[in-house]
TrEMBL record:
PANTHER family: ACETYL-COA C-ACYLTRANSFERASE, BLR7806 PROTEIN
Similarity annotation: Belongs to the thiolase-like superfamily. Thiolase family.
Record-linked Gene3D superfamilies: 3.40.47.10
Species per Swiss-Prot/TrEMBL record: Noviherbaspirillum galbum
Listed name of the protein: Acetyl-CoA C-acyltransferase
Domain Thiolase C-terminal: 268-390
Alphabetical keyword list: Acyltransferase, Transferase
Example of a GO biological process term: small molecule metabolic process
Pfam families, alphabetized: Thiolase_C (PF02803), Thiolase_N (PF00108)
Catalytic activity, EC: 2.3.1.16
Lineage of producing organism: Bacteria, Pseudomonadati, Pseudomonadota, Betaproteobacteria, Burkholderiales
Cell membrane found in the keyword field: no
Active site: 89 (acyl-thioester intermediate), 347 (proton acceptor), 377 (proton acceptor)
GO molecular-function terms, A-Z: acetyl-CoA C-acyltransferase activity
Amino acid sequence: MAEAYIVAAVRTAGGRRGGRLSGWHPVDLAAQVLDALVDRSGVDPARVEDVIMGCVSQVGEQSTNVARNAVLASKLPESVPGTSVDRQCGSSQQALHFAAQAVMSGTMDVVIAAGVESMTRVPMFTSSALPQKNGLGYYMSPEIRKHYPQDFSQFVGAEMIARKYGLSRDQLDQYALRSHQQAINATREGVFKEEILPVEVRLADGTASGEMHVADEGIRYDATLESIQGVKLLQEGGVITAANASQICDGATGVMVVSEKALKELGLTPMARIHHLSLLGHDPVIMLEAPIPATLQALKKAGMKIDDIDLFEVNEAFAPVPLAWLQATGADPERLNVNGGAIALGHPLGASGTKLMTTLLHALKRRNKRYGLQTMCEGGGMANVTIVERL
């Protein structure tokens, strides 16, 4: 089978809700990433054959095919098409899979996989907030209800995972503190500098402020275990709080995927080779447990063991997810989310897939490691797994 290579990967620093990226129209923010991928790779913009962009809330400013709109706002020529993907939180990881599959099939040579989400300007759940009347207008259809009559959500799933794996509130809060501490250390040491695309802070009316946004805004530099423990529970008798869950975040991210033919023709230097791609559907009620069986399946298909992987990125949607994943897979916790995760850095929904990949690729390079594995839980009970080999 033909190989697929990543030759550029970049992300904006995360912005808090109502924060330093809130003045950006998401289409224009995504266009900045597309331009940066072209600039960093040195590829002629006209050579890009498709832009595949993950986005969860495809409504309002992110509607009407946000990928194509981002192309039209970028330096890419209008001959470059674009399509938008929704696999919930794994949307841009799936965009990467589609891009790699296009290259590996031999039908394309240069594809951009990206993601964008402005959770400030297009709030979470907006796309499911149409008026409901007499049971109509709800995305849970009557047939789904027959199969799954109970109410469930990501929050319910997080609580279920904590109970199933015996995870206490204290363990979740300790993990949340670790996420902030890792992110603080990484930021202070300049670890993220190479992967972050500086963008100008825009005011509410869209005008430039003259100040650049270069650091993840969600990191709590004053975080302590006591302050995290002081955050109220989201559910009485539960263990999940806003402090041990991912942060609402604005951001855009992307990677450029090319064939071996393009690599040679264009004289490109690969960051990594796509070693394995897979995904798995799982129980939609517990919902967020899917990364566990998906990881085990991926390793089996790839003929690898968990200890063969040097670094892991497991999205911190809620603290029970990576903790349960560690428990079930037996992975070394020192290799997991080594620069912090979404609890500290933010989770810009559809942009998080290529965000995690960008961070993983740069971490492998910085630490001179070979294999990295990325996975994340997704609404509806799914998980993508991507294994890359740094070159």
